[in-house]
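Subject: sequence -> structure tokens, single chain

Hey, anyone have a minute? Need the predicted structure for the following. Not urgent.
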Amino acid sequence: MSLRLGSVAPDFEAETTKGPIKFHEFIGDKWTILFSHPADFTPVCTTELGVVAALQDEWEKRNVQVIGLSANGLDDHKKWIDDINEVNSVELDFPIIADADRKVSTLYDMLDHQDATNVDAKGIPFTVRSVFIIDPKKTIRLTLTYPASTGRNFNEILRVVDSLQLGDQHRITTPANWQKGDDVIVHPSVSTEEAHKLFKEVRVVKPYLRLTKSPF
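Reply:
Had a minute. Here:
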């Protein structure tokens, strides 16, 4: 099954560092970021999970929960968390899925088909650096895939969450390089006449490009 924007995130059961979960129950009424990393005790992944842990307050402000995944067992996950905390001066408090059998990573098409070095001792591929932003309706709203060699920019993922949540609440979209607080674009489905009624100020650059102040 191909997972596209708008698809319902597949449900699954898994063991995590916080106990067993059923994914749809875990999502509940929160926005959820499911992200994979190739393997425990690896350098790029150690920096990434440290950054995600350091952003805990920012996730909570946005009603977001994060959950990691790699193709390792629970024992390795729990030992590795000590390293993550030490190296990054954090207290990692989000769950990490144990997916040694690759069931979840196969379900979400996370396995590496490019990097011949990104495999375990048996030659079975580890995951690439996949990201799924899933809303409270269990709908996939964003997908990202980075190669194993490149760490992700989690501030960009925060930025996308801000854009998605703002667009859900107001009839707007966000321009290139938009940051929280910048001007936003009036949604194309809104006429200029209606835009002047919806928003305090509308700046018409072109008939199809109308800017207004951010509702944030």
